């Protein structure tokens, strides 16, 4: 079956888009005759669009339009690659990179497609493979993009991205079936098997509401995956505007002056837009993201930790790749090529992947809260190491390796922590918001790196060594702050959600149903009409 390999190819598109960021910033600045802080927008704009488009793609793909959404996203990314390759000025390049940023939301969409079109027994292994492919593709993409930029210029790297995304577009169109066809061909059989398992078990699974919701019969009408998902267009626009105004203020604060009316106005507008967006998300019936889930202390703390670590990660990525490419004539740097700058980031990808594989054993031995805190401290150690020792290129490799261990541990643990703290039916919304938070942190980190380096201009358009050192120490501070957030997580969040099930019968009423107190935490995250629908189904 070719669906699996095609989805892997679609996932690699997201990795390639990411690899065209930090290592190519000095090349963008040189080829387009602009400063490094301005060239930084070639990374920031892609991350910004990724943050805004991820929940939109997720919502559009949550239904029968999943294949159409995947094709549309790949088409936009391909067009962006062509525009970036043909760009003769920074404005056109940023437009192309913005369109490419849509590709950052393709990996979760590919995983959802695998769950929709593959037999149940193959879903878990395929999602694991897609996750590994994203990490491995990112590690390989860094030096490949640098090699292409050195051999054929900046346009060569972007043409490569356009080719890969175009190939993925053709393959998805030829191989991946629509959601309706997938259910008729394979998923329905899985539903029958699931109902058979429930009947064999007897109690609860065959008779309870969860089994009915998970495996409806054809007479029950359209399943959730067969119904079109409603897109919160107003929420998407408000989120995009809030992110743009805030990031422009952060990125240009040094150039325009932090006390200037323009910067103050942008920051105030960004805060106001985020407030309006939050209120709108809480009141609308079909929100872009479920902000009500932040009522769970574990979800709030975990997302805050992910935001802070995302900022720290992209401050480091931007600073280190520019530092190693700085000419030695300035008294620091290694005069490295874009290829070498890409190679420096391979230990980051490799150890992030390796650390995530060791996560189950670490959580079993230490607990989730300790693992998260330890990962943040290890990340801080890596940043501090290079802030003090940066006289040899091997030290950059050591730093990214240590950073990979820390970030791999934390970023792998946070989704599990969120899932344990919420009702099962809210998992998709919670992880969708987690994606938004991560990409927002990435884009803020990129913008912050640009403004810090611009504040330490050596007079020749290049940052001083002190600027790069400051970037690293700021990253240390963010990692330590994330460690504090991880440590204050509620102790109950480290316990698996299933451990509470045996006690459920003790708290249940005489009719065997949950008490109102138990029911509230699951229901309070949902709009009133949706709660009413759920009550009708359960009655």
Secondary-structure blueprint:
Layout: H1 3-19, H2 25-31, H3 36-39, H4 41-60, H5 66-86, H6 90-101, H7 106-117, H8 120-175, H9 179-201, H10 209-214, H11 233-256, H12 261-283, H13 297-325, H14 338-344, H15 346-357, H16 359-366, H17 368-388, H18 393-421, H19 427-454, H20 465-487, H21 501-507, H22 516-523, H23 528-538
Helix pairs in contact: 1-7, 1-8, 4-6, 4-11, 4-19, 5-6, 5-7, 5-8, 7-8, 8-14, 8-15, 11-12, 11-19, 13-14, 13-18, 13-19, 13-20, 15-18, 16-17, 17-18, 17-20, 19-20
Major β-sheet annotation: none
Regions with little confidence, pLDDT below 50 for 5+ residues: 186-225, 491-539
Helix content: over 70%
- Broad shape: globular
| Topology pattern, helix = H, strand = E | HHHHHHHHHHHHHHHHHHHHHHH
Name the quaternary structure.
single chain
Brief summary of the model shown:
With 539 residues, this protein is mainly alpha-helical. It has helices spanning 3-19, 25-31, 36-39, 41-60, 66-86, 90-101, 106-117, 120-175, 179-201, 209-214, 233-256, 261-283, 297-325, 338-344, 346-357, 359-366, 368-388, 393-421, 427-454, 465-487, 501-507, 516-523, 528-538.
Word description of this protein:
The structure is a single chain. The protein has 539 residues and is mainly alpha-helical. The protein contains 23 helices and no strands. It has helices at residues 3-19, 25-31, 36-39, 41-60, 66-86, 90-101, 106-117, 120-175, 179-201, 209-214, 233-256, 261-283, 297-325, 338-344, 346-357, 359-366, 368-388, 393-421, 427-454, 465-487, 501-507, 516-523, 528-538. Helix 4 (41-60) packs antiparallel against helix 19 (427-454) and helix 5 runs antiparallel to helix 7. The two termini are 42 Å apart.
């Amino acid at each position: 079956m070719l669906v699996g390999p095609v989805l892997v190819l679609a996932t690699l598109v997201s990795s390639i888009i990411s690899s065209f960021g930090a290592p190519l910033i000095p090349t963008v600045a040189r080829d387009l005759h602009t400063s490094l802080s301005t060239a930084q927008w070639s990374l920031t704009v892609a991350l910004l669009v990724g943050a805004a488009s991820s929940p939109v793609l997720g919502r559009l793909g949550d239904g029968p339009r999943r294949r159409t959404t995947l094709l549309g996203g790949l088409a936009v990314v391909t067009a962006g690659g062509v525009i970036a390759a043909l760009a003769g000025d920074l404005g056109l390049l940023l437009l192309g990179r913005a369109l490419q940023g849509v590709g950052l939301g393709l990996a979760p969409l590919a995983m959802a497609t695998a769950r929709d079109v593959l037999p149940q027994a193959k879903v878990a292994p395929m999602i694991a493979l897609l996750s590994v492919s994203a990490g491995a593709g990112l590690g390989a993409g860094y030096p490949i993009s640098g090699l292409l930029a050195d051999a054929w210029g900046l346009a060569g790297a972007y043409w490569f991205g356009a080719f890969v995304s175009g190939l993925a577009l053709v393959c998805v169109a030829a191989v991946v079936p629509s959601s309706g066809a997938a259910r008729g061909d394979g998923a329905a059989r899985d539903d029958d098997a699931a109902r058979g398992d429930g009947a064999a078990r007897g109690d609860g699974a065959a008779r309870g509401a969860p089994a009915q919701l998970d495996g409806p019969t054809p007479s029950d009408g359209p399943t959730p995956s067969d119904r079109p998902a409603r897109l919160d267009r107003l929420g998407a626009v408000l989120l995009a505007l809030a992110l743009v105004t805030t990031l422009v203020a952060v990125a240009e604060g040094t150039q325009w002056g932090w006390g200037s009316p323009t910067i103050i106005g942008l920051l105030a507008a960004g805060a106001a837009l985020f407030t309006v967006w939050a209120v709108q998300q809480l009141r609308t019936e079909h929100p872009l993201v479920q902000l009500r889930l932040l009522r769970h202390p574990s979800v709030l703390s975990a997302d805050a930790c992910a935001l802070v670590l995302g900022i720290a990660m992209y401050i480091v990525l931007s600073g280190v790749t520019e530092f190693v490419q700085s000419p030695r004539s300035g008294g620091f740097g290694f005069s490295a090529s874009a290829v070498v700058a890409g190679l420096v980031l391979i230990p980051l990808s490799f150890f992030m992947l390796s650390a995530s594989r060791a996560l189950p054993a670490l959580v079993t031995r230490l607990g989730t809260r300790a693992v998260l805190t330890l990962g943040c401290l290890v990340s801080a150690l890596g940043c501090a190491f290079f802030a003090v020792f940066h006289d040899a290129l091997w030290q950059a490799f050591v730093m990214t390796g240590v950073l990979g261990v820390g970030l791999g541990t934390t970023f792998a643990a946070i989704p599990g922590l969120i899932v344990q703290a919420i009702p099962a039916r809210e998992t998709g919304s919670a992880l969708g918001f987690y994606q938004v938070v991560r990409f927002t942190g990435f884009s803020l980190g990129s913008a912050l790196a640009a403004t810090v380096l611009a504040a330490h201009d050596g007079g020749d358009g290049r940052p001083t060594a002190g600027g790069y050192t400051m970037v690293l120490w700021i990253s240390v501070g963010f990692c330590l702050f994330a460690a504090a957030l991880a440590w204050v997580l509620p102790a109950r969040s480290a316990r698996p959600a299933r451990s509470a099930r045996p006690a459920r019968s003790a708290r249940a009423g005489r009719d065997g149903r949950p008490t109102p107190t138990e029911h509230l935490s699951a229901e309070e995250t949902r709009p009133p009409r949706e709660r009413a629908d759920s009550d009708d189904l359960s009655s």
